[in-house]
Amino acid sequence: MPRSPSAPGATRPSTAWLALCVAALLLACGGEDAQRYSVRGQVVRIADAGRSLVVDHEDIPGFMGRMRMTLPLQDAAAAEGLEPGDKIAFEFFVSRGTGSIGAIEELPEDTPLELAPPPR
Ligand SMILES: [Cu+2]
User: 3-class SS at 21?
Assistant: First the structure.
């Protein structure tokens, strides 16, 4: 512990380095290396002129339960040819509290899914 305002030099640098490390960790978690989940669900509709998808998705263990949500598409082309009712598997990216959909793969029509009951 510094005893006078003029002698904090010994502690300041390490504090700064600690802050840098924490910042680096935060970047690693929420930046380029966003969390990615593989999720299955069903298309409710395409929204925002093709830029978002409304989906009923299954449970995402450790993250969120089954629900209906609107998610922006990272690439609008990923939803081309999709129609309401289509069953899909998709990459769900979460970065800084915002979700988005990456690649989408259509599932066979008879794929059993565990979805939340539709909202009234
Ligand atoms: Cu959700």
Answer: helix
How far, in Å, from the CA of 119 to the mean position of ligand 1? 14
The answer, yes or no, to whether residue 30 has pLDDT greater than 50, is: no
In this prediction, residues 12-41 reach a mean pLDDT of 66
Range of the domain at 44: 33-106
CA of 49 to the centre of ligand 1 (A): 21
Which residues are registered as beta bridge partners of 64?
60
Q: What are the structure tokens assigned to 27, written together?
A: 């970047």
**pTM score of the predicted model:** 0.71
CATH of the domain at 61: 2.40.50.320
pLDDT in tens, 67-103: 999 999 999 999 999 999 999 999 999 988 899 999 9
In a domain, 21, yes or no: no
The dihedral built from the CA positions of residue 107, 57, 46 and 80, taken in this order, carries a sign that is negative
How many angstroms separate the alpha carbon of residue 53 from the centre of ligand 1?
12
How many domains are there within the chain? 1
Rounded to the nearest whole angstrom, what is the distance from the C-alpha of residue 15 to the centroid of ligand 1?
Answer: 38
